[in-house]
Amino acid sequence: MRHRSAFVLEAFLPYRLSVVANRASRLFARRYAEAFGLSVPEWRVLAVLGRFGGLSATEVAERTAMDKVKVSRAVKLLLDRGLVERTEDAADRRVQRLAMTAEGARIHAGIVPHARALEVELLAGFSPAEAAALQAVLDRLEARLAEMGAEAAADGPD
């Protein structure tokens, strides 16, 4: 019998969210890493550039919930591989905008079907109503975290 004051880590919501996110991220990474040679942070940078394009490294960090150092390392590797390019912002010369190169876009386009397939596979045991409810709960959790002052740029799961 559990003591009423015992802290049950595996029932603690932030811990459970982190474990689930880490496991899903590692599973996905195993599926694309060998074929495309990208790490999780590199894929996240490409994914956010594929969705929004023309972002600064700071904006990438905010949108991916990765810390700036991790984003910086991933961007450097992607630049070195010729998958992203950096251009000066027309309005503010201090800001460097990132965009995928043609090769980066090709790799992104190759990974996206794997991402969609993983999502379908993850939700295979859910009814459409349950999948929609899960999305709604996650949206509410994100909104609540923002209300509580949680920073989006904190390091996310790998």
From TrEMBL:
Keywords: DNA-binding, Transcription, Transcription regulation. InterPro entries: HTH_MarR-typ (IPR000835), Metal_resp_HTH_trans_reg (IPR052067), WH-like_DNA-bd_sf (IPR036388), WH_DNA-bd_sf (IPR036390). Residues 10-143 form the HTH marR-type domain. This is MarR family transcriptional regulator. It comes from the Bacteria.
